[in-house]
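Letters spell out the chain; backbone shape is given numerically. Both lines appear below:
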Amino acid sequence: MLPTHRYLAGLLCTTALLWLAIGVTLADTIGIKSAELLLEEDNYVLNAQFDVAFNPTLEEALQKGVSLYFVLEFELGRPRWYWVDEKVAELSVQYRLSYSPLTQQYRLSSGLLSQQFDSLDEAERLLSRVVSRPVVARDALVQGARYDAAVRLRLDVAQLPKPFQINALASRDWSLQSEWYRWSFTP
């Protein structure tokens, strides 16, 4: 009888680990539809389109007054065969999404700028779009050289209140992020 208990305990542990692995791989993601660098006047600007959709857990947290912080990250580097790749530009922009029960409106803010929305869908649409965000000066790039660009958008769980940070470690509902979208760019 003892070997049967060991077998069942081993089977139970294996099943629990399998469900944990499935939960980690099924984490919510932000899809990336497109990203590009364009020259506007004396700067290269970033245009990107993400597919942001909140799950019910995040929607409920917003309704209860928890602000969600998102970070847009951009990197531009030049590959070198003789040394480590050269970092040409880095950009990190933080967005804060909050809900006001008094006005029943959502507010998306970045720095000193903010905008109000009547619905979460409208706020998601604005968060999903990056338009003409300056990332690097024209004269900082060598014409004809190849550069590697990367961009991503993620929910910054470190900005959540402490009880939610602990919950975020154990629940996939709080891991909303995109993969790094990478492409080559030649000015």
Remarks:
- Helices lie at 2-25, 56-63, 120-127, 162-170.
